[in-house]
Amino acid sequence: MRDVIETMVGFARTLRAAGGTADPERVQAMLGALDHLDVLDPAEVYWAGRLTLCADPDDLARYDRCFAAYFSGATARQARRPQPVVVRRTTVAEPAGGAGGEDEGELKAATASAIEVLRDRDVARLTAAERAEVARLIAVLDAGAERRRSRRFAPAPSGRLDPARTVRETLRRGGETSLLRHRAHRTRPRRVVLLVDVSGSMSPYADALLRFAHAAARSGGRDVEVFSAGTRLTRLTRELRHRDADAAMAAASAAIPDWSGGTRLGEELKEFLDRFGQRGLARGAVVVVASDGWERGDAALLGEQMARLRRLAHRVVWANPHKARPGYEPLTAGMAAALPHIDDFTSGHSLAALEGLARLIADTGKGRAHARRAG
Predict the structure, then answer these.
(1) Number of CB atoms found within 10 A of residue 373's CB
(2) CA–centroid distance for 364 within its chain
């Protein structure tokens, strides 16, 4: 039963990372339901979780995607019908050869405990099968942005007095004074811009980071822009808006002419600001730069452009996969030049780190003052 609890708690954590409710009370309710059910029956496990972990109709599709990806490795397109659940009392991803008692589907399905281990593994050190499993879990991440106040107003039960609606209501009643009408500012998602380094030094991480960008584009829609940076700047927003993650990655790979090439971050950042940022893409946005900071060009130019970016953006986040390594210090010339102009410095080396990056993008409580205190 302990293995079952660890499995389901790990699934609830994945559901929360994808934007679901799955609070501790709901997790307890799910575990209580499973005490009276057969945990090896996929239908019973599916409905126990769906009836306890989902708080509103928006959670249902998210739950189906996470259930399929976590337990059976299915893609989001197959998530509407739950696949067979494999709950096994072992931490081995696949049984040793010769175990003839398990069918082919069970041999191919990764155990939930193995998936939990994968969350903290460096993606550069994963096998091809493990990379595919992590890619499926990245595809269900909810990387939506925080919401900001719009200049436009909408009717509200309280707030600022709405003179126009109040007068119209009074005239409609023949001049009889009625209740005062109020209005409040609308909110809309804050724009998110991701610049992903696809140079040779970032090649072990570029695929996972671009898949994260696809999850962000899928969650944020038209408020998310994605660029790749290496020896030239490439806009990937259109390619990564494809619903299917593998199709989006194939389109992005075909569009990137400098994959695994050199790094000229300063020049590419200047081009981005000149062509797109100054005109509005970076203004008031959360800008995420995913790079290890290896700069073959002029590091001073990178520092100048980072200072320029910070004046335009609401928040600047830098995700460096090497930050998670023991003893890491930002000593490279490019990283040292960029660091003073960064609000949040994080890693992007694992599934857990990407989940943290998604929470960071969506954190409405973080701003410039908070970032300075944290730094």
Answers:
(1) 7
(2) 15
Looking at the fold, whether 205 and 330 belong to one and the same domain comes out as yes
Q: What dihedral do alpha carbons 325, 327, 332, 336 form, nearest 10°?
A: 100
Burial class (CB in 10 A: 0-12, 13-18, 19+), 15: buried
What are the tokens at 315?
């928040």
Residue 346 lies in a domain: yes
| Same domain (yes/no): 15, 74 | yes
Look at residue 76 in the predicted model and tell me its pLDDT.
Answer: 36
d(C-alpha 263, C-alpha 201), whole Å: 9
Q: pTM value? A: 0.66
- How far is it, in rounded angstroms, from Cα 119 to Cα 14? 10
Alpha-carbon distance of 361 to 317, in angstroms, equals 8
Same domain as 250, residue 208: yes
In CATH, what number is assigned to the domain containing residue 360?
3.40.50.410
**Binning pLDDT at 50, 70 and 90, where does residue 367 land?**
low
Looking at the fold, whether 202 and 236 belong to one and the same domain comes out as yes
Rounded Cα distance, 367 and 369, in Å: 6
Lowest-confidence segment of 267-271, 276-280, 349-353 by average pLDDT = 276-280
Residue 25 burial by CB count (10 A; 0-12/13-18/19+): exposed, middle or buried?
exposed
Question: What would the mean pLDDT of 39-47 be, rounded to a whole number?
Answer: 85
Residue-level pLDDT at 82: 42
Coil, helix or strand at residue 235:
strand
Q: What is the number of domains present in the chain?
A: 3
